[in-house]
Amino acid sequence: MKVTVVGAGNVGATCADVLAYREIANEVVLVDIKEGVAEGKALDIWQKAPINLYDTRTIGSTNDYEKTAGSDVIVITSGLPRKPGMTRDDLISTNAGIVKSVTENVVKHSPDAIIIIVSNPLDVMTYQAHLTSKFPRTKVIGMAGILDTARYRAFLAEELNVSPKDIQAVLMGGHGDTMVPLPRYTTVGGIPVTELIDEDKLDAIIERTKFGGGELVKLMGTSAWYAPGSAAAQMVEAIVRDQKRVFPVCIKLDGEYGINDCYLGVPVILGKNGVEKVIELDLNADEKALLETSRKHVLEVMSVLDKNA
Ligand SMILES: NC(=O)C1=CN([C@@H]2O[C@H](COP(=O)(O)OP(=O)(O)OC[C@H]3O[C@@H](n4cnc5c(N)ncnc54)[C@H](O)[C@@H]3O)[C@@H](O)[C@H]2O)C=CC1
Ligand SMILES: O=C([O-])CC(=O)C(=O)O
Questions:
Q1: For the segment 224-247, what is each residue's pLDDT rounded down to a tens digit?
Q2: Could you tell me the pTM of the whole model?
Q3: Whole-angstrom Cα distance, residue 118 to residue 77?
């Protein structure tokens, strides 16, 4: 299996590293526009192979897309990260152009690949890649839900003093402040979370999750990369190993949840064909209202992209 990661910055390099040391792919090609950066990071990851004991080949390229030819999965992380005081949506004008040109380049050389978008604003960049690639919607998907649920699960594990491995959760909507965590579908070793935690503490964790990205931007002056890079690698793994994992993933909705033509995070089954099924939960009225708010927000940002097209 061959995987290309475009953008050899913080998230892209972390993703490539996880793909290599966990031997998720046989070959990982890292591409960046900055001269030498992708080559250097790919070489560094390869030189770690004898220490961490893996065989995955990592190859770097400065904008030479021939090296990406025949990739099974492409992860796009190229684009600006936000700085303190910015929203993810503030990145649209720069990142839309980057995602468009990168998508044009990758699809030329890998017409059958599955594309995973990471660049922000996530839902709208997934829209951009879908428009440009003209691939089926099931093969152009965005990474956000795995990261957002991971944050939620980590906060819950800390509060309850339990292993994060035992916390299962699902979250829907756009990757931003309007995301919709679903406590009704959160369990701890099979026990509904609401039986283990006070409502006010759970509400505080939900609020912290919604602003989880911003919390890290404030601390570091740029956005997160360890959890995002690992989350993208987990999506790649589900695809290349045909695992049929159930994850929240951003995809264009085609009638599911009564929504058309909007890119939102929903639970799906992820396997060798990309999204193999969108799972439709029976949301209650409050959950539907939150999803509707998220839909309206993402549509507004999508319309900015349409206006600038
Ligand atoms: N979906 C999510 O949950 C998350 C999304 N992000 C987003 O991922 C993106 C990357 O973040 P970082 O890695 O922290 O940024 P970074 O600045 O460390 O890396 C971005 C890389 O993209 C490269 N690049 C820019 N234009 C390019 C082009 N046309 N072709 C190839 N490479 C190009 C840059 O040279 C740079 O090395 C940002 O947009 C950020 O907001 C970050 C974390 C989580
Ligand atoms: O917060 C950001 O800008 C990056 C991101 O999407 C996240 O870490 O959730």
A1: 999 999 999 999 999 999 999 999
A2: 0.98
A3: 5
pLDDT at residue number 64: 97
Q: Spot the catalytic one: 109, 130, 175, 297.
A: 175
Ligand 1 centroid – CA 65 distance (Å): 17
Please tell me the residue having the least CA distance from ligand 2 atom 6: 213
pLDDT of residue 308: 79
User: What ipTM was reported for this prediction?
Assistant: 0.99
Residue 20 Cα to ligand 1 middle (Å): 19
DSSP 70-104: T-SEEEE--SPPP-TT--GGGGHHHHHHHHHHHHH
Residue 120 CB less than 6 A away from ligand 2: yes
175 catalytic residue (yes or no)? yes
Amino acid occupying residue 78: S
Return all residues near 300 (Cβ < 8 A) that are at least 6 apart: none
